[in-house]
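Hey,

Quick one before I head out. I ran the complex with acetoacetyl-coenzyme A overnight. Inputs first:
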Amino acid sequence: MPFLNDQNRMWQEKARNVAEKVVRPLARKYDELQEYPWEIKQALAEAGLLGVWIPKEYGGGGGGVLDLCLVIEQISRACGGVGVMYCVNALGSFPILVGGSEEQKKHWLPKIATGEKLIAFCLSEKFAGSDAQSLRLGAKADGASWVLNGEKKWTTNGGAADLYTVFAVTDANSKSRRISAFLVEKGTPGFSIGKIEDKMGIRCVPVVETVFQDVKVETAQLLGGQPGFGFHHAMGTLDLARPGVAAQGLGLAQGALEYAMVYSARRQQFGSPVNSFQMIQQMLADMASQVEAARQLVYASATSLDRKLPGAGKMAAMAKLYATDTAMKVTTDAVQIFGGYGYMKDYPIEKYMRDAKITQIYEGTNQVQRLVVARNLVKETNALTQLLDAYIPREVQVGYNDPATLAAQKAAEPARS
Ligand code: CAA
C-alpha cells in the first residue's frame, strides 16, 4: 500500500508476524474448543498490540483508527475469532477515550494497553438490539453510589474481561439524557456471568449474558462523572469502532481469497488446475476486486476518523456494511471454489464463512448502517437542492378545463421557433 506511512507499516508488520506465527497455527484448535485463547492474547500483549489505539500519554502505542484497522485486518486474515477477541478491547475502551474523566483515563487505559486488563462493552439487551436507546438495565442513585439492576445480552469477551463498560438508564423520564455509562469491575458483588452462548463462528471469544443484581458502584465509576451522556458516548464509540469490524470483514475476505487462490492452483479437474478455467478465474477476479474496494473504503473511513473529517461517521457505516457484506460474499465463493471439500471441517475455509456471518450483524446490523448512511444523505440534501433544483423540471398536474393552469404552463414553456 503506497499511501501507508512508516508507523502504519510498522503496526501492520507486527500484526502480520503474530498472525502467521501464533494465530493461524492455533485457529482451528480454539474454534473446536470454543475457549478463550490465552496464549494468543499473551502473544498479542508481548508484541505491544493491545494498546495500539491508546494514546502514548496513557501508556499506549499512540496509533490511530487506521493503525488499529491494519492490525485487525492482519489478525482476521488468519482467524476471524481472534480478530474480534482483539478488537473488542478497542470497542470496550473507546467509551473511556470518548467520554471518560482524566482520572478514569489515567487509571484504566495504561492497564488495558499492556493487556493487564481486558475490557468488554455492554450495550445490547434481550429487548434492545438495533434500538439501543430502549435499553432497560437501571441505575439508581444511592447517596454517593449507584445501584445497577438488570441484564445485558451479547457481551463479547464476557467472563474473560476484567472491566465492563455498562450502559444503564439513570433518568427514565428524560428523552435525550436517559442513559449513562458505568465502569464495572469483574468480582463486584452482584455482578455475574449468565448464559454462555454456543456460536456458529468466532468461537474462540466468549459471548455471554451479564447479570447485575444490586450491583453497587461509586460515582467515580460513572463515565465522565456526569449522568445523561451515555447514549452519546455509545454512538461516538460505535463511530470509532465500526471501521474495526469492517477491517475484520476485510481480513476474513482477504484470507479466504488467498486460500481459494492456492487451492484452485493445486486442484486438478479435466486434466488441468481449476484456476485455468474461466468460470473460476471470473470468480477470483471478482473476489479480488471486491476485497480491494473494501480495503480502500476501510482505510479511507479510518483516516477520516483519525483526521476528524466531516462525514466520518457516515464513512464508518459505509465501510462496515460494504466490507462485511464483501466478507460474506467472498468467503462463500471461496467455499464454492473448494467444492465439497470446502464444506468439510478438516479444510480451513468453512470457518471463514462462519466467522464472516456475524460481522454483518454485530456493532450495528448492516441494515442499521444503511439507516445511518441514508439519514446522513437526507441531511446533505438541503445544500444540494440549492445547486440542482433549478435543473430538474417540475411536474405540473393539469386540471381538465382549468384555463388558469393551462395559461401558466404555456407561459412557462420555452418559446418554439
Ligand atoms: N455520535 C454522537 N451522538 C450521536 C450520534 C453519533 N454518531 N448519533 C446519534 N447521536 C445522538 C443524537 O444527536 C441524539 O442526541 P439528542 O437526543 O441530544 O438530540 C441521540 O444520540 C439520539 O439519536 P437518534 O435519534 O439518531 O437515535 P436513534 O434512537 O434513532 O438510533 C441508531 C440511531 C443509529 C439506530 C442507533 O440506535 C444504533 O446505532 N443502533 C445500533 C446499536 C448497535 O450498534 N449495537 C451494537 C452493540 S455492540 C455489539 O454488537 C456487541 C459486541 O460486543 C461486538
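The beta strands are 119-122, 138-142, 145-156, 163-169, 179-185, 191-196, 207-218, 268-269, 272-273.

Talk tomorrow,
K.
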